[in-house]
């Protein structure tokens, strides 16, 4: 990677401080990404199945929650509509009496 002989061990702390902040961030990001890829490759088939099952379960929970919210909104709409009909019929009955 680096041809500098001081990068072999003891001088590594000094080498880090001489690099720009951008280089340090890029190297850290690359190291984290490679670690994540290693973790992803080291999963067993059972872990893959369990992960898929968990994701499917979370998706179903999300869909169920959305369905409940839609039903609640629909019930609110129906309740308001009923109240408006009652009010309208009361107003019409009063106007007919006069």
Automatic annotation (TrEMBL):
Coiled coil is among the record's keywords: yes
Stretches for region Disordered: 27-48
UniProt keyword list: Coiled coil
GO biological process: actin filament bundle assembly; actin filament polymerization; regulation of actin cytoskeleton organization
Superkingdom field: Eukaryota
Gene Ontology cellular-component terms listed: neuron projection; stress fiber; synapse
Coiled coil: 50-80
Pfam families: DUF1151
Protein name: Uncharacterized protein
Lineage per the UniProt record: Eukaryota, Metazoa, Chordata, Craniata, Vertebrata
């Amino acid at each position: 990677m680096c041809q500098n002989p001081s990068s072999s061990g003891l001088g590594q702390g000094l080498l880090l401080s001489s690099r720009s902040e951008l280089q340090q961030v890029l190297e850290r990001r690359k190291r984290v990404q490679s670690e994540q890829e290693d973790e992803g490759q080291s999963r067993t088939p059972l872990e893959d199945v369990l992960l898929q099952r968990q994701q499917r379960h979370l998706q179903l929970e999300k869909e169920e929650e959305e369905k409940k919210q839609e039903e609640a909104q629909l019930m609110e709409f129906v309740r308001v509509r009923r109240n408006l009909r009652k009010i309208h019929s009361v107003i019409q009955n009063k106007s007919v009496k006069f």
